[in-house]
Structure formats: structure tokens, C-alpha cells
Design goal:
It is a single chain. By secondary structure, the protein is of the alpha+beta class. The chain contains 7 helices and 11 strands. Strand 4 and strand 5 form a beta hairpin. Helix 2 packs antiparallel against helix 3 and helix 3 packs antiparallel against helix 4. The longest helix has 35 residues.
């Protein structure tokens, strides 16, 4: 019987040691490997701004543009780096343009009654806007004005903020975000200053390989370029008719340049940074 007692004692001793070793070493190793394999997955971060963003989208879809703009501005102030901030910026730009380029009533707009002797360029100069913007806002197909005609006029104070590394052109109104446009390609020679203060020099319009002027029948369907006073900085799009792109510049979508050229003139300031 003595041998049986020894056997049972050995089982208890070595079994206990094995159990102790399993708990101390083996279970810890399994836990470490589980963590390394990310078996315990972190919980997803709640999207707190989603409801507000969708509400702003709904206001735009319902045609409540002023309400949508207010909601988007408030959203971006509250969630400046949230998961929907980039979408909100693009949507705010769309809303701002929809309000501006229409007869939609909004602060900063006024009516002008055409008087004898008025021409659109003179009215634009007097009202500190552009002829193209007057035509777009009032859905005009011709530069001709009729005495007594009531024109909706806007009084923006636009400036451009160009970020080379981010490849965006941001349009500001009275120093506040209005809309941003994406740059497809940056083609600049040599070393660029970290910050350049300049202005719009001219708007160029191309049709069938030739320059066309504002007021011509070709102008509405032309390709637009915006040349800045800073050397080498032209915002351009591919033009038909064998027009070669400038040796330097920032390439953008043609439709974006048509829209942007409506809003700027040769007094529009521009800041270029990295």
C-alpha cells in the first residue's frame, strides 16, 4: 500500500505544478497572442454628427437653402474635423452657389431698376459686381438691358485662397468660407515662395482655338482660364481647338472655372500658400 500512497502523492505534487504552470505561463501566453491578433476588437466610435449632417442635407433637398446654409455653418463650427466635415464643406459650397446664382432672396442682395443709358458693364461697375454674375443671377441670355427692368444684384467681396499642397482653391466671401474647388494637377517650375499675395489679372475665354470676349455669342459655351498677376499662376482647363495649356499653372475642371470666372474680376485678391 506504501507504493500506492507514493503514487498518489506524486500525482498531487506534479499535477498541482502542472496546473500552476498552465495558469501562470500557458494562459498568459494565450492571452498575449489573442491581444496581438486583435481578437478583442475596440468598439466603434459613435458618429455624433451624422444626424445633424443628414438634417442639413434634407433642408437642401427641400429647397430651404437659407436654413440649410445656417445648419451647415453650425455643423462645421461644432464638428470641424468630424467624419462628415469634408462632405459638409462641399455641400455648403453648393448651397452658397445655388443662393448666389439665382433670384433666391438672401441678405446681401438688392434690386436695381435699369435706367436710360444703362449698359451691363456700367451697372456692374456701379454696383461693384461683374457683368457675368448679373447675367447668371438673372438668367439672362443677352447683355441687352431694357429700361425699367429689375435686376437682382449681389454684393459679394470675394477673394481666393490657393493651397498648393492640398490642391484646393478656396473662395472666400468677406473673409468667410464660400466654396472650394479641387485642383487636378499642379505644374510649377522652380522653387516657390511659401506665401504669395497677388490678385486676378484677367479672365481668358477660348472657343474653337480662338480667344473670345464677354458678350459674344461664343462666350457662354467657352472654356475659361483665370490668370493671376503672380508669374506662372494660371488656373486653366483643357481647351479644344488645339489650344496648348500654359507652361505653368493649376489645372481644374472646366465647369468649375466657368463658375469661378463668373465670380472674380481683376480686383479680386488672391493668396497662395503651401
Amino acid at each position: 500500500m506504501k507504493w500506492l500512497f507514493v503514487l498518489l502523492l506524486a500525482i498531487v505534487v506534479f499535477g498541482g505544478a502542472a496546473f500552476f504552470s498552465y495558469n501562470i505561463f500557458v494562459k498568459q501566453e494565450i492571452a498575449v497572442r489573442a491581444e496581438q491578433k486583435s481578437d478583442a476588437r475596440p468598439q466603434a466610435t459613435p458618429d455624433f454628427g451624422l444626424t445633424e449632417f443628414r438634417a442639413a442635407q434634407g433642408l437642401k433637398e427641400d429647397g430651404k437653402l437659407s436654413e440649410a446654409r445656417s445648419a451647415l455653418v453650425a455643423f462645421l463650427e461644432r464638428y470641424p474635423t468630424g467624419p462628415h466635415s469634408e462632405e459638409a464643406k462641399d455641400l455648403l459650397g453648393q448651397v452658397n452657389i445655388s443662393i448666389l446664382l439665382s433670384r433666391y432672396p438672401a441678405p446681401g442682395k438688392s434690386e436695381y431698376t435699369v435706367k436710360k443709358g444703362d449698359v451691363i458693364a456700367r451697372v456692374a461697375s456701379k454696383m461693384k459686381t461683374t457683368p457675368d454674375l448679373i447675367m447668371r443671377m438673372n438668367n439672362m441670355n443677352s447683355t441687352m438691358l431694357r429700361i425699367g427692368e429689375r435686376l437682382m444684384i449681389s454684393h459679394p467681396d470675394f477673394s481666393l485662397f490657393i493651397q498648393r499642397n492640398e490642391r484646393v482653391v478656396v473662395l472666400l466671401d468677406h473673409g468667410q468660407f464660400f466654396k472650394r474647388y479641387h485642383v487636378q494637377n499642379v505644374k510649377l517650375l522652380g522653387r516657390q515662395a511659401p506665401k504669395i499675395s497677388t490678385r486676378v489679372a484677367e479672365v481668358l475665354a477660348w472657343k474653337n482655338g480662338k480667344r473670345v470676349g464677354f458678350g459674344s455669342k461664343e462666350y457662354p459655351s467657352s472654356t475659361r482660364w483665370i490668370r493671376l498677376a503672380a508669374n506662372g499662376y494660371t488656373l486653366y482647363a483643357e481647351a479644344s481647338g488645339g489650344v496648348l495649356p500654359p507652361p505653368q499653372g493649376l489645372q481644374m475642371e472646366a465647369r468649375d472655372l466657368v463658375e469661378l470666372s463668373t465670380l472674380v474680376n481683376n480686383k479680386t485678391p488672391a493668396t497662395i500658400t503651401d
